[in-house]
Structures are given as C-alpha cells and as structure tokens.
Amino acid sequence: MFVLLIIAGLGVVTLLVILFAPHIRRYAAGGVCKSTARLDGKTVLITGANTGIGKETALDLAIRGARVIMACRDVEKGEEAAASIRATYSEAKVEVRELDLADTCSIRAFAQKFLREVNHLHILINNAGVMMCPYTKTIDGFEMHIGVNHLGHFLLTYLLIGLLKRSAPARIVVVSSLAHNFGWIRFHDLHSQGSYNSGLAYCQSKLANVLFARELARRLKGTNVTVNSVHPGTVNSDLTRHSTLMMILFTVFSVFLKTPQEGAQTSIYCAVAEELHSVSGKHFSDCAPAFVAPQGRSEGTACKLWDVSCELLGIDWN
Ligand SMILES: NC(=O)C1=CN([C@@H]2O[C@H](COP(=O)(O)OP(=O)(O)OC[C@H]3O[C@@H](n4cnc5c(N)ncnc54)[C@H](OP(=O)(O)O)[C@@H]3O)[C@@H](O)[C@H]2O)C=CC1
Ligand SMILES: CC1=C(/C=C/C(C)=C/C=C/C(C)=C/C=O)C(C)(C)CCC1
C-alpha cells in the first residue's frame, strides 16, 4: 500500500512538472541582459571559453561586434567551439589561444604573447573553473580549486592589468558562485593538505573570487577599470563532470536549471550594461546586485588573501 502511494505520488509530481514545464523553465531561466550595447572595436578575453557559460558569453559578445579571444587549455576543443560560434554568426571575430590556469608557466607564456600581439583589452572575463575534482595539485603545487579558480586568475589579471588600464574604460568580470556562502579561507591549510573535502575546496575558491574582486576594485579606484563578481545561477554544464551524483541530479532536474546561455546573462550584463560603467566591487546574480556572505565582505580577509596570493605566486602587486 505504502509503495503504491509513493509510486502514485511520484506520478503526480512528474505529471505536474510536465504540465508546468514551460512556466518552470521561464522561472528557472532567471535574469536576462537587456542591454543592446555594441562592442565594435573592443577586445574581450574570456578564460574557459570552449564550453558552458564561457562559450555562450563568447558568442554573445562576438555578436555585439567584439574581437573575442578565447583562452582555453585544450586548443582543439577551443577551435571546435570557435567553429561552432562562427557557424552561428559568420562574422564572429573569435580566436583561440592556449592557456592552462593550472600552470603558472603557461599563464606567463600566454600573457607574454598576448601583450606582444594584442594592443588593447577592454573586457577580461575570469570564467574558467573546476568543481569537486579529486585531490590534485597544479604544476606549481597548489590545490587544484584554489590554484585554477583563484590563483591562476589572480596571476593572469596581474600580468594584464597594465594593458587593461591603458585600454580604459575597461571591465573585469570574475565568475564566482553562490557557493562562496559556504566557504572559508583556511589560511592555515589553504591547499587542503591536512584534510580535503572537494565541495569545501570549491567553496573556498569561489569565496576567494569574491574577495579578490572586492579588493581589486578598491585598489583600482580612479583608474576607470572596474571589477565585479558574478553568480551565474545553477547551470546545466560540464562543471559537474567530477561528481557522478551531481551529474545525475543535474540531468534529472535539468528542467529546473539554467542552460549555459541563460547562465551567461549575468557575466554579459556586467561586461556591457551601460548603467554599470562606474560600478565596481559589487556582486551580481540574475543581472541584479546580489547578497555577499559576511566572510566575503571582510576587508581584513581580502587583504590577507591578496598578500598570501602574491607570496605564493612570487609577485609584488601593490
Ligand atoms: N554551472 C554552474 O552551475 C555554476 C558555475 N559557476 C562558475 O561558472 C564558471 C564556468 O563554469 P561552467 O561553464 O558551468 O563549467 P564548464 O565545466 O562547462 O566550463 C569550465 C571551463 O573552465 C575550463 N578550465 C578548467 N580548468 C582549466 C584550466 N586549468 N585552465 C584553463 N581552463 C580551465 C574548462 O576547460 P575544459 O573544457 O578543457 O576542461 C571549461 O572551458 C566556473 O567558474 C564555475 O565555477 C558558478 C556557479 C554555478
Ligand atoms: C539540492 C538539489 C539540487 C540543487 C543543486 C544546487 C543548488 C547546486 C548548486 C550548484 C552550484 C551553485 C554550483 C556552482 O557553483 C538539484 C540539482 C536542483 C536537484 C535536486 C536536489
């Protein structure tokens, strides 16, 4: 009897989901960037642009007329993505360059070539990310989440900040997550050598993204280079590739999740919206200002993280 009731309940829920699917989809899609701003003559750099949110961001900004440089660790995958963008929009000015954020030599080589060959950079989107991977270290010995999601982008931004300032007005968008709410910066064990939890390591790195954006905004005051962080929403992308459970959940509940195109809206909004021209150091979700957890608002933590990041990367960024 009990089993029959459960089966009947599940049946009713499934039927309701099917019936209301269009409404659920519309609600799940979240905010849309309504700006029609053109980017002709502007240069954009997007990390992790071969798939998911990064690829959709690249497509949108290319349609607005920008020259879009897609920084990808796998050039072959990057070229496939660029080809599919060109297939959608034949005039897209997209190009692929190799960048592995898990290797500081690759980041330095990328930046060196970039500075030699590209004269302007108006929009930098720090989008690439890994989530819940098994314990791994980057080439330089950093735990993978903090290494790629935070330190890799920190170094990249440091190397390109001069160009961004010279190209001002310029914008930096840091793709963080709601997951920053559940993170702490574990200064005593930043690389999780004592204990490792893949979920918490991801949350720590996403909190680091929020703190980096706020601290960088403070330091960039008066330069006409702004920086904001973003939560894209819960997006059905390859991000779940390291967690079978998340992959199953995201597939089963896909109707409730954003598509990568919907997930790209807030990044696009922060990159182009006219009303944000002088807004800096803020966090956005669904193309609107969003809540930042108390640990993401701590100036002391942001400052300490900045110093620790410089020390780990062997750079002097004041
Ligand atoms: N999907 C979601 O629900 C949410 C996503 N986010 C954030 O959005 C951003 C984009 O994620 P999403 O599009 O969903 O995920 P995807 O997994 O689809 O895309 C991640 C991108 O990052 C790239 N990447 C991973 N490691 C490296 C590296 N070492 N060097 C260079 N590039 C790398 C991937 O390249 P490759 O394909 O070669 O692995 C891929 O292009 C991430 O920062 C993520 O944390 C935040 C909240 C929710
Ligand atoms: C609990 C739960 C879900 C929600 C998952 C969420 C909310 C995931 C958020 C992931 C983020 C924010 C990742 C990147 O930063 C699903 C899948 C709807 C299925 C039903 C159970």
TrEMBL record:
<dbReference type="InterPro" id="IPR036291">
    <property type="entry name" value="NAD(P)-bd_dom_sf"/>
</dbReference>
<keyword id="KW-0560">Oxidoreductase</keyword>
<dbReference type="InterPro" id="IPR002347">
    <property type="entry name" value="SDR_fam"/>
</dbReference>
<keyword id="KW-0521">NADP</keyword>
<protein>
    <recommendedName>
        <fullName>NADP-retinol dehydrogenase</fullName>
        <ecNumber>1.1.1.300</ecNumber>
    </recommendedName>
</protein>
<dbReference type="GO" id="GO:0052650">
    <property type="term" value="F:all-trans-retinol dehydrogenase (NADP+) activity"/>
</dbReference>
<comment type="similarity">
    <text>Belongs to the short-chain dehydrogenases/reductases (SDR) family.</text>
</comment>
<keyword id="KW-0443">Lipid metabolism</keyword>
<dbReference type="Pfam" id="PF00106">
    <property type="entry name" value="adh_short"/>
</dbReference>
<comment type="pathway">
    <text>Cofactor metabolism; retinol metabolism.</text>
</comment>
